[in-house]
Amino acid sequence: MTDPTPGTVDPQASPIEVRGLVSRFGDHVVHENLDLTVRRGEVLGVVGGSGSGKSVLLNTLIGLKTPEGGSVKIFGQDLDTVSLANWDIIERSWGVLFQRGALFSNLTVSQNIAAPMREHMGLSTAATDDLARLKLALVGLAPGVGALKPAELSGGMVKRVGLARALALDPQLLFLDEPTSGLDPIAAAAFDSLIADLSGGLELTVFMITHDLDSLYAICDRVAVIADRKVAAIGSIDEMLASDHPWIREYFHGPRGRAAAASAGEAA
Asked: Strands 69-74, 16-25: parallel, antiparallel or unpaired by DSSP?
């Protein structure tokens, strides 16, 4: 596929297309012939047991790890062969919320949000400050939060600031790594609602690693299960419930799975 028009990504291409992915560390194979296609505009929940390679997959998708085999395409561009000019375009097309926020402790909230803008957009300080305030409002935080340091924030606020920074460049693709981990049930539900509102309102494609069954039921269009070194299954919650794969059955039909299903039924 040819490079897209400068400044754009291919509007027809899948946001994420992985084929035959092989990931390993030394002799330890994490992924073997893993295939995954993420549809434009969907919220995809990614689950799997500890050590199944969810974070390795995320790091591969955002270019932090080079795969040992296979291909990874973002909006039709192969990360292994994309030009430097189009790498910058692709990098601007996504935003990432890491599990613990990954905020710079020595910067204020506004400076954290503005960091991607300074790197990629070359805007003035006044312009980035204005945009940072807009992103704070987008994630439900007051303008005054911008002057605080990360150490002054609650866990839920750290998540929201991290999300505001992930949205700084108006991405089309959003990566979320355990977005509700460490949050109490009320804060987790509020964050789920925020993601649902943003994904719909901004027409985002969302790739979300999570252990939170409530999140899967509340906001995910499909679920991808990583097991046996590959995507063992992908589909709707109903399809997951019908699966006879041992890990999937234990995950979705165990006590927490039944509780999440009951809670989703009550909310419907």
From this structure: antiparallel
